[in-house]
Amino acid sequence: MKKRSKRYKAINKDKSIEKKKDLKEIFELVKKNSTCKFDESVDVSLRLNLKQSKGGDFNLRTTVKLPNGSGKKVKLAVLCGPDKVEEAKKNGADIVGSDDLLDQISKGKFNFNKLICTPDMMSKIGKLGKILGPKGLMPNPKLGTVTTDVKNTVQNFKKGLVEIKTDKDGNLGSTIGRKSFSSENLLNNFNHLIDTIKKEKPDTLKGEFIKGVYITSTMGISFKAGVKR
Description:
Elements: H1 6-12, H2 23-32, E1 41-48, E2 61-65, E3 76-79, H3 85-90, E4 95-97, H4 99-106, E5 114-117, H5 122-125, H6 129-132, H7 150-159, E6 161-165, E7 171-178, H8 183-199, E8 210-217, E9 223-225
Parallel strand pairs: 3-4, 3-5
Antiparallel strand pairs: 1-7, 1-8, 2-6, 8-9
Helix pairs in contact: 2-8
């Protein structure tokens, strides 16, 4: 038999599964139940309908610029030529390099969790795909991480641009803030995320796209949220 901690039992009393709650009330409960000493993240998990009537199953992968940021600190590396080095540093990149950065990556040294690359460096980074790919760090033009606009790209990721993607079962998870955020800011981020995902619904897909939405914190319990699909 599983043993539940006193903390779990205490916060679980607020769950009241049978009672329907509006989104703002859910965020207030999530914040209330974030009782750890650190600033817990507030996360959204979605179950999507990825079965299409034509053209095979659908995979969603895109970026979302949360209006109030994610609260997550991003250590950003920029792989570029000498002409873009100062631009990258001036706008907040943590690591900037060209051949020297490629050499570090080839040795398995990853001191960053997001990599931006200029197009002229893509021919050099291609051979490192087997190293970067499994870690989710390979730059991708569709996600805005291959760009000539280093200034705005760096600033956007620093301000809360987040990447979202589904797994093979159609599940998607994203952080939309921290417990220190106001309920209003969390709600704004949530609505923006949902609106972005709705726009990604394929024309060939019949029926509802978003099948389930759950909101939780790092160490908290989850609440089922109702959204207009």
